């Protein structure tokens, strides 16, 4: 009997629950990651002390590193500091910036990395990608997939509400990214990886239609798992394709033309809704518009403080942010006048819901 299959690198341990940070020492022992707790713990300046107080009793020999995080320079500096010690693993605890800084630094020395997410801002918690700013431009750097992924719901609950809700926008943008992938298959014959697509789709479909909000543990758990499987989808196919299409091109364009407009997840959700409208998929558009409204996430350019001209510029610029990626934006190749016209129709369609 032939047993043909592929091998996929995934995290060895995934835990989504309350109290995970306090139990970290035990989790590392149980997971055979570190029996003596000789790990480098990387925290951000905000949560730092609170996290250290909580995990000290279970991780007495851990060495703590505080990073401003979020930039390639900070990640390189951290990796130089890590070089002088001997660690079983690097544990990054915090939001996207801290985790991505730790991911990059650990990957540089081939150290196992454990991602402990205290917020659910985007699908970076389990992905083999570190999003870091270099010379003022945000870039995506390939790294080893985290060895362990832990989400502590106590921290998520107490974190900034909008930061967490933004993860909903990032997850449901998968629906639009997958439609772009299908389009690239039809038009350009680009192969679609079915396993990656299903990992990216399932969580997105669940978050799109699931009742409940960020005060509901069942919903937050599904959101965390959806973000994790989104990261796995990228690891499975070796590209961000299953979770990033025209939606993310618009997000990257807004980020580079109008920095600090809104977070990754908020802009990905807005970009996904706009791309879904461009595709003329009314059922999806309605579902997505309602989901974003339900979770008080932005749906129109004015919701994130952009005027029509600025948004049109971003949509026009978007294809240049990912030159080889074929999406609805490359497919339609709209002139600025056409984008303006579509945007006016889009604003009306959103207002009607
Ligand atoms: Zn994303």
TrEMBL record:
<keyword id="KW-0963">Cytoplasm</keyword>
<dbReference type="Pfam" id="PF13685">
    <property type="entry name" value="Fe-ADH_2"/>
</dbReference>
<keyword id="KW-0862">Zinc</keyword>
<dbReference type="GO" id="GO:0008654">
    <property type="term" value="P:phospholipid biosynthetic process"/>
</dbReference>
<keyword id="KW-0521">NADP</keyword>
<dbReference type="GO" id="GO:0046872">
    <property type="term" value="F:metal ion binding"/>
</dbReference>
<feature type="binding site">
    <location>
        <position position="248"/>
    </location>
    <ligand>
        <name>glycerol</name>
    </ligand>
</feature>
<feature type="binding site">
    <location>
        <position position="264"/>
    </location>
    <ligand>
        <name>glycerol</name>
    </ligand>
</feature>
<keyword id="KW-1208">Phospholipid metabolism</keyword>
<keyword id="KW-0443">Lipid metabolism</keyword>
<keyword id="KW-0479">Metal-binding</keyword>
<feature type="binding site">
    <location>
        <position position="127"/>
    </location>
    <ligand>
        <name>NAD(+)</name>
    </ligand>
</feature>
<keyword id="KW-0520">NAD</keyword>
<keyword id="KW-0594">Phospholipid biosynthesis</keyword>
<keyword id="KW-0444">Lipid biosynthesis</keyword>
<feature type="binding site">
    <location>
        <position position="123"/>
    </location>
    <ligand>
        <name>glycerol</name>
    </ligand>
</feature>
<protein>
    <submittedName>
        <fullName>Glycerol-1-phosphate dehydrogenase [NAD(P)+]</fullName>
    </submittedName>
</protein>
<dbReference type="GO" id="GO:0016614">
    <property type="term" value="F:oxidoreductase activity, acting on CH-OH group of donors"/>
</dbReference>
<dbReference type="InterPro" id="IPR032837">
    <property type="entry name" value="G1PDH"/>
</dbReference>
<feature type="binding site">
    <location>
        <begin position="96"/>
        <end position="100"/>
    </location>
    <ligand>
        <name>NAD(+)</name>
    </ligand>
</feature>
<keyword id="KW-0560">Oxidoreductase</keyword>
<feature type="binding site">
    <location>
        <position position="170"/>
    </location>
    <ligand>
        <name>glycerol</name>
    </ligand>
</feature>
<dbReference type="InterPro" id="IPR016205">
    <property type="entry name" value="Glycerol_DH"/>
</dbReference>
């Amino acid at each position: 009997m032939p047993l043909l299959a592929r091998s996929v690198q995934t995290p060895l341990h995934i835990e989504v629950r309350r109290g995970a940070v306090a139990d970290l020492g035990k989790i590392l022992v149980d997971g055979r990651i570190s029996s003596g707790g000789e790990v480098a713990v990387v925290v951000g300046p905000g949560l730092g002390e609170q996290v250290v107080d909580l995990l000290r009793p279970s991780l007495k020999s851990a060495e703590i590193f505080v990073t401003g995080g979020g930039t390639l320079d900070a990640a390189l500096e951290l990796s130089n500091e890590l070089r002088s010690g001997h660690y079983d693993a690097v544990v990054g605890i915090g939001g996207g910036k801290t985790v991505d800084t730790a991911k990059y630094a650990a990957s540089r020395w081939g150290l196992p990395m454990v991602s402990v997410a205290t917020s659910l801002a985007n699908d970076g918690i389990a992905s083999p990608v570190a999003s870091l700013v270099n010379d003022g431009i945000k870039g995506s750097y390939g790294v080893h997939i985290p060895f362990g992924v832990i989400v502590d719901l106590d921290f998520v609950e107490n974190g900034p509400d909008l930061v967490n809700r933004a993860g909903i926008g990032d997850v449901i943008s998968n629906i639009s990214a997958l439609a772009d992938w299908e389009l690239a298959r039809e038009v350009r014959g680009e192969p679609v990886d079915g396993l990656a697509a299903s990992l990216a789709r399932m969580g997105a479909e669940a978050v799109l239609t699931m009742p409940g909000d960020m005060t509901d543990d069942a919903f937050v758990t599904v959101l965390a798992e959806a973000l994790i499987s989104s990261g796995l989808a990228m690891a499975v196919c070796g590209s961000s394709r299953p979770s990033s299409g025209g939606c993310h091109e618009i997000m990257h364009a807004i980020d580079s033309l109008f920095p600090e407009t809104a977070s990754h997840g908020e802009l990905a959700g807005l970009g996904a809704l706009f791309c879904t409208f461009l595709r003329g998929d009314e059922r999806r558009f309605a579902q997505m518009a309602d989901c974003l409204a339900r979770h008080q996430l932005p749906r129109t350019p004015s919701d994130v403080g952009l005027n029509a001209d600025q948004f049109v510029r971003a949509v026009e610029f978007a294809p240049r942010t990912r030159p080889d990626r074929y999406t609805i934006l490359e497919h339609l190749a709209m002139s600025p006048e056409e984008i303006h016209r579509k945007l006016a129709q889009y604003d009306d369609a959103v207002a009607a819901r």
